[in-house]
C-alpha cells in the first residue's frame, strides 16, 4: 500500500441500527460507531466532519457496500461517500462484504486489501447493492 493513500476515511452503513466511520492514518485505526436511530442519525455527518477537520487531509475514501439489511441505511452511506469523493476530489474505493463480515478486524483486513486495487474511475459513482429490491410501494 502506497503511503500517499493515507489517511483513509471509510464508511460502513450496512447495519440499519449502527454506522461505522473508520479512520486510518497508516499507523493507527480509529473506529467510531454512530446510532442510526432517530434523532441521532445526523451525528453521522458530525463524526465525519471531525475526521475531515484533522490537520492531515483525507486522501482516500472507502465505502463498504453489499447486502445491506435496510434500503435507507445503505443508501445513506453510499450517497455520503459519493458526495465526499466528488467534493474533496479524492479517490473512492468500493468494498463489497457479506452481511456477516462486520468485525473490526475483518474490516481492517478488507480495507487494506481493497486499497491495493485501483480506485473507481473518475466521474463514476458507487451504487448500493441491496439484498432485495426496494419495496417502498408494496402494499399500497
Question: Could you explain the architecture of this structure?
Answer:
The structure is a single chain. By secondary structure, the protein is α/β, with parallel strands linked by helices. It has one domain (3-115): Nucleotidyltransferase, domain 5 (2-Layer Sandwich). Helix content is 29%, strand content 21%. It contains 3 helices and 5 strands, in the order βββαβαβα. The chain has helices spanning 43-52, 71-88, 104-115; strands at 8-12, 18-24, 29-35, 60-65, 92-96. Strands 3-2-1-4-5 form a 5-stranded mixed sheet, with helices on both faces. The chain starts with 7 loop residues before the first strand and ends in a 25-residue tail after the last helix.
Can you describe this structure in just a few lines?
The chain has helices at residues 43-52, 71-88, 104-115, and strands spanning 8-12, 18-24, 29-35, 60-65, 92-96. With 140 residues, it is an alpha/beta fold.
Which tags fit this structure?
single chain; 140 residues; alpha/beta; Nucleotidyltransferase, domain 5; 5 strands; 29% helix
CATH topology: Nucleotidyltransferase, domain 5
- Please report the first level of CATH classification, the CATH class: Alpha Beta
Largest sheet: 5 strands, mixed
From the coordinates shown, what is the CATH architecture? Answer: 2-Layer Sandwich
**First-to-last CA distance:** 50 Å
> Strands of the biggest beta sheet: in what spatial order?
3-2-1-4-5
Individual helix count: 3
Any low-confidence stretches, pLDDT <50, length ≥5?
A: none
The pLDDT mean sits at 80
CATH homologous superfamily assignment: ATPase, nucleotide binding domain
Compressed to H and E, one letter per element, the order equals EEEHEHEH
Helical/strand content category:
alpha/beta
The shape is globular
Amino acid at each position: 500500500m502506497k503511503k500517499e493513500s493515507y489517511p483513509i476515511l471509510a464508511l460502513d452503513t450496512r447495519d440499519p441500527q449502527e454506522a461505522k466511520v473508520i479512520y486510518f492514518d497508516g499507523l493507527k485505526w480509529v473506529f467510531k460507531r454512530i446510532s442510526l436511530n432517530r434523532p441521532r442519525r445526523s451525528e453521522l455527518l458530525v463524526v465525519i466532519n471531525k475526521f475531515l477537520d484533522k490537520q492531515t487531509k483525507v486522501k482516500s475514501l472507502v465505502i463498504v457496500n453489499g447486502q445491506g439489511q435496510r434500503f435507507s441505511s445503505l443508501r445513506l452511506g453510499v450517497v455520503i461517500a459519493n458526495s465526499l469523493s466528488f467534493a474533496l476530489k479524492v479517490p473512492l474505493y468500493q468494498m463489497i462484504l457479506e452481511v456477516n463480515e462486520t468485525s473490526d478486524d475483518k474490516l481492517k483486513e478488507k480495507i487494506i486489501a481493497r486499497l491495493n486495487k485501483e480506485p473507481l474511475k473518475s466521474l463514476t459513482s458507487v451504487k448500493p447493492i441491496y439484498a432485495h429490491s426496494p419495496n417502498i410501494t408494496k402494499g399500497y
